[in-house]
Request: fold
Amino acid sequence: MTRTLALIRRIRQQMLRDRRTLALLFVAPLFVLTLMYYLFNGNDDPSRLGVSQVPATVVQALEEADLTVIAYDHIDEELLTREKLDGALQLTDGQLSLALTNNDPTKAKALQMKVAQTLAAASQGAQSAEQPGGRNMTTTYLYGTADTNFFDVLSPILVGFFVFFFVFLISGIGLLRERMTGTLERLMSTPIRRSEVITGYLAGYGIFAVIQTIIVVFYAITVLDITLAGSIWNVLLVNLLLALVALSLGILLSTFASSEFQMVQFIPIVIIPQVFFAGIFPFDAMAGWMQVLARIMPLYYGADALKGVMYKGWGFGDIAVDVLVLLLFAAVFIALNTFALRKYRKL
Amino acid sequence: MERSISVDQVSKSFGKKKVLERIDLQVQRGEIHGLIGPSGAGKTTLVKLLVGMDIADKGTVHVLGKRMPDLDLLQSIGYMAQADALYAELTGLENLQFFASLFKLSKAQQKERIAYTADLVKLANELGKKVAAYSGGMRRRLSLAIALIQDPQILILDEPTVGIDPELRLSIWNELLRLKREAGKTILVTTHVMDEAERCDRLAMVRDGRILTSGSPRELMTDYQVSGLEEVFLKVGGAR
Reply:
């Protein structure tokens, strides 16, 4: 136990000295995530909304909600594209209808939300029968459907992926350096047990993985405002498990690399394929053997659970199987690691 | 005299390549024993069997009367590999502290041993520096201090003076002689430098995984009727 603690303390000291690596671990995921967020979310220009036959009070309310409102006599699809409108609100026969161009699903969704909220507020204030309520509004889309929102689906996968990738890289290279400089061999010439070495590494790098996970998850949810339908604790749990799997896998694969260069070569072999099966491409459309392949990839289970919790609002019961499989992956990798250390000392 | 290390009929191969063949080696308590031979002779493999990192295919290795490998016995063996094996991001002190905490030492003992070993290798004033800023000689000395940290009865040093300047080599040898004289340590050293071999109490000449001959430097020179160890080596090697 004291030996494991000594190992943890040493890894902490080493990591704190290596500012670049710390920055990679903590800042790089936030940087890439932010970049992706803006790539998918487009600009923050006020949406251009065309209106026709809409009461003046509603128009005023819409303008107060930061929308560029332009009045037309009549609106059709051709006008929507020609005038580069994001949407059009029309009142025909007492029925409100909203047509969304949906060029950018995220922007369209935001516009729809804003219009609905404004209408609801306006109807609540007036409380009269003639004021059309937001609930009666029908929505149509020029392109796509109401369900198209790429970043909402993608972001849970991205969060899980970044945690997995950076923990894998740093723990793998960290241990590889120890193998290359001979310090691991020296470590094994002391009375430390192989299990103590593995526990020490898992906990030592684990502390940093936990901090990274917490930073990434909170940044994604509070700063980037990524949809979180379920519990944040479940998100943290799944990400921590992903980090544990990445940690033990990184340490294990470093056994088969003889240089940092060779460690980086594992990325296209081990990391990239996992991304393909994490849910970015529709799973049901894959060939049968591809679906089988997906099930040996830890990220498949992590992404499934994260998407469930963050996007669909799943509870713990719904992700229990994913959690269990991730735990199983970690257990297998840890056991293999303890065995792989026999290369350095048979006992 | 008491035997610290006893190797009996040990063979070891990696794949089809025989690295050690029926090695016999006895090291007495309190002596400096040299293993001399060219690179690739099997010295490092033999050393790894002694510290229990590898297991012999045939034969037995006993250290301090116990059969290796034995985890608890590692408390009594100080091992210094060919590579310096230090954590460059950490200071000298942090390196010593880390390795000290891997052994059964109380906090007070740890402090005392760190102070003693640092003083012994003349690094006491450099402990606050990061190892990355150390010179090659300082790293070797720190590495030696780490091998001594738990006050082991036996010291096993794999080419401790390779690649360092003559002055430092002399000072390391003086330290080894002092450890033998004052603390009664048993020291096993591998080397391929002949003038170092002369400082050993006893020698074993290794080539191609076999021990060609062994004895004190003086005995060897008398036996083979030559005036230098180098000639002994050439004579024995050539006779095969």
Chain A is about 65% helix and 5% strand. The radius of gyration of chain A is 26 Å.
